[in-house]
Amino acid sequence: MLCALSGEIPEEPVISKKTGVVFEKRLILKYIEENGKEPGTDEELDPEDLLPVQTGRVPRPRPPTLTSLPSLLKAFQDEWDAIVLDAYNTREQLKRTREELANALYQNDAAVRVIARVTKERDEARDALSKLSIAPTGAAAGAGGDDAMAVDNLSLPEPLQEHVDEVHQQLFKTRKKRPAPASWATSDDISALQPVATTALTTTQPETLAIQEAHAAVGGLDGKLDIYSIEANQVERTLDIGVPITATVWTENKVFVGSSKGTVTALYSGEQKEVFKTHAGKVTGLSLHPGGRILASAGVDKSIFFYDITELKVVASIYTDNVVTALAFHPDGHLIAAGTPSGDINIFETKTGQLAASFTLGVQADVIVFSENGYWFAAAGKGQPTVAIFDLRKTGDAAKVHEFPTDDVRAMAWDWTAQYLAIAGASGTIVQQYVKSSKSWSELLRTGTVGSAIGWGSDAKTLVAVDGKAGVISVLGAPSE
Question: Can you state the subunit structure given in the record (predicted)?
Fold first, then answer.
C-alpha cells in the first residue's frame, strides 16, 4: 500500500471516499489546501472526504546496499566527502560574495561622491546663472525681443558712462599740472618717520584698512569693523558686520566692506544701508572710482560688479576667465585693473568692460596700486620678495620698467603726489621714492613695523600700518622733540 503522491509507504494513510486512492495524510491535506481538488482528477475534495486507514506499524526496509559494515563505512565516507566538498564550495562562494560586496560598496561610495560633486556644480551654476543680467541687445532691443541675453559683460548705464568720461577728461587735464601742496612731506620727512603710537584693536585678525582724513576703518576676520582715530590714537567705535571682512573702502561718510561670504555691505554714517549679495564666494577686492559715485568689487567667482553708491544698486558687471585676486581703478577712472592667480594683470575699460590690455607679473597678483601720474602701477604677490612697476604705455616685457627686492610683500600704498611707494610685509615697512628729475628710485625708509595693510595719513606725514597677527595698529610719524 503506497501513497499516490509520494510513491512511498505512508506513515499515516488515508483513503479518498470518492476514488478509493490511498494518500499520506499530511501530503493530501497540503494538496487540498492549495488546490481544493483530488490529485489526478477534477473532482473537489474536502478533508471530510478522507478516511483514516488502520494498519500495523510497518518498518521501513533497509536499502540493500547497507547490509554490511564495509557498505556502511563506504556510505559514511561518501557522506563525509560530500560534506567536505560542500564546505569548500560554501567558503569559495562566501569569498566571492565578500569581493562582490566590497566592489558594490566602492561603487556606491564613488557614486555618492560623483553625486555630491555634480550637486555642488549644479548649485554653483544656478547661483552664477541667477547673477546673469538679461537685457535686449542689437535688433532685439528695437523689436522688444526677450531672447537676447548679455551673459559676458553688462556695460554701465549711459548716465554713468557720461560721468566716467567727464571725470576722465577733467583729471587727465589737471593731474599732470597740479603741484604738490606746500605742506606735503619731503623726502627728509619720510626718512625720519618712526613708530609714534601702537594701539590694540578690538577686532581680531585685522586684515583691511581704509583711511579717511584723520580716521581709519580696520576690518577683521571676526566680522568687526573698528573706527580708529589717528590723532587721538584710540578706537572710537566698533561696528559688528557679522561676516569675515576681506576688503574695505571709505569715502566721505560712507564705508563699504566686502566679506568672505560674497557680500558687499554699505554703511552710511555708521548705519547699515544695504547688503549686496553679488558674489558666489569671497570678495577679493573693493575699489572706488575717483568720481566718488561708482564702487567696484571683485571675487573668486571670476566676476567684477559695479555699484551706483548714490542709488545703492548694481549697475554693471564683468565676467572673466579667471579668479580675480586684486582690483584697482586707474586714477582717471576710465580703466580698472584685475589681478589673477596665473600672474596676468588684465586692464578693462570701465564703461564697457572690454579688455584693453594685459600685463604679466609672473606670480599671483594679490596687490595692485596705481600711481597718481596715471602711467604706472605697482604689483606684487603676497609673501613674494619683489615689487614690479609697470608702464601702461608699453607692452610685453618692456612694460615692466622697474623691479626692486623686498623681504616680503603684504600691502602697498602710493601717495597722492606719486613720489612715495609704501610697502608693508611680515618683516617690516619700506618706502621707495621715485625722483622724477633723475628718473631713479631710492629707498627712503626701512623699519621693523609689520603690516598686513598700510595707508598714508594726511599730507603723507604719517603712515598707518595694521598688523594682522598681533591685532594692533601702528602710526609712523615725525619723532617727538
Answer: Homotetramer.
